[in-house]
Amino acid sequence: MRKLQLNLSARMIEGSAIAVGLVLATTALFLVIGRSVLGEGVIALLYLVPIGWSTTRWGQLAGMCAAVTAFLAFNFFFIPPFLTFQIGSLEGWLMLIIFLTVATVIVGRIQYGLQRAHVREREALFMYELSTALAGARTPDTVAQTLARQLQQMLQASLVQVIVESDRAEAAIMASVPATGSSAQKPDQILPMLAPHRLIGEIRLWQGHTPLPAANGILLQNFAEQGALAIERVQTDTSLTTPLVPVSGNGTHN
């Protein structure tokens, strides 16, 4: 774990250094073209390109380093008086403030979008793994165990219980992950598993170190729906394969 953290830190520092170098190279290009040719407004807009690209490529830290470097370079080289960090007019102050605000917002929005994309990718992967695992389940007990295990892995919950109501006279099935887990407290969330015509069972969740998603969110609802469909399928298959018991009688044939 410590080695992984060091690798991530080294990668973040390396990405931030490259982002700063990219902004400095962009500044050199602007100086070659000329301040009078581009104008302050165009320069400010073009600086957003390396800032956005650095954020996408190396993350929020690199994006903020690029934004601060661009802010300082913009002030030093392109806002009068030149070659100094002093600002000689209200227009210069407004341009720098607007530029830094826009750059910060862009970094934040890009980072948020990347995080959301990562979450959606992770959720899609878990849904695929769940569907694959449930496809091979042949009994309600196996479905309940699979569903509880997948939910515990994804949510990092302290305890997950899946209860399946029997469609016969047998007792209900309960799967717990971890298997030895128990809690005297009420579950933090209870998700009903509904089939088209009846209640199949319910999912009970106890929060771990990370907050649980909203109970009415798409992710948990999909898990509950997939579990209900799988349980109904195996219960139907079991009832179809159960042999019929012949009824004996003393009827008289004419």
In short:
The chain has 254 residues and is of the alpha+beta class. The protein folds into 2 domains: 2-117, no CATH class; 139-239, GAF domain (Beta-Lactamase), CATH 3.30.450.40.
**For the CA atoms, what is the radius of gyration?**
30 Å
- The order of strands across the largest sheet is 2-1-4-3
- The secondary structure category is alpha+beta
Instruction: Give start-end ranges of low-pLDDT stretches.
Output: 244-254
Proportion of residues in β-strands: 5-15%
Q: Note the total helix count.
A: 7
Broad shape: rod-shaped
Indicate the percent of residues in helices: 55-70%
Report mean pLDDT, rounded to a whole number. 83
How many domains in all? 2
Main features:
254 residues; Beta-Lactamase; 2 domains; four-stranded antiparallel sheet; 7 helices; disordered C terminus
What does it look like?
This protein has 254 residues and is α+β, with helices and mostly antiparallel strands. The chain has two domains: 2-117, no CATH class; 139-239, GAF domain (Beta-Lactamase, 2-Layer Sandwich). The protein has seven helices and four strands; from the N terminus they run ααααααββββα. The protein has helices spanning 2-33, 35-38, 40-58, 60-78, 90-135, 140-155, 218-241, and strands at residues 159-164, 173-177, 189-194, 199-206. It has a four-stranded antiparallel sheet with strand order 2-1-4-3, covered by helices on one side. A hairpin with a 4-residue loop joins strand 3 and strand 4 (199-206). Mean pLDDT is 83; it is low at 244-254.
Give the arrangement of secondary structure elements.
Elements: H1 2-33, H2 35-38, H3 40-58, H4 60-78, H5 90-135, H6 140-155, E1 159-164, E2 173-177, E3 189-194, E4 199-206, H7 218-241
Antiparallel strand pairs: 1-2, 1-4, 3-4
Helix pairs in contact: 1-3, 1-4, 3-4, 3-5, 4-5, 5-6, 5-7, 6-7
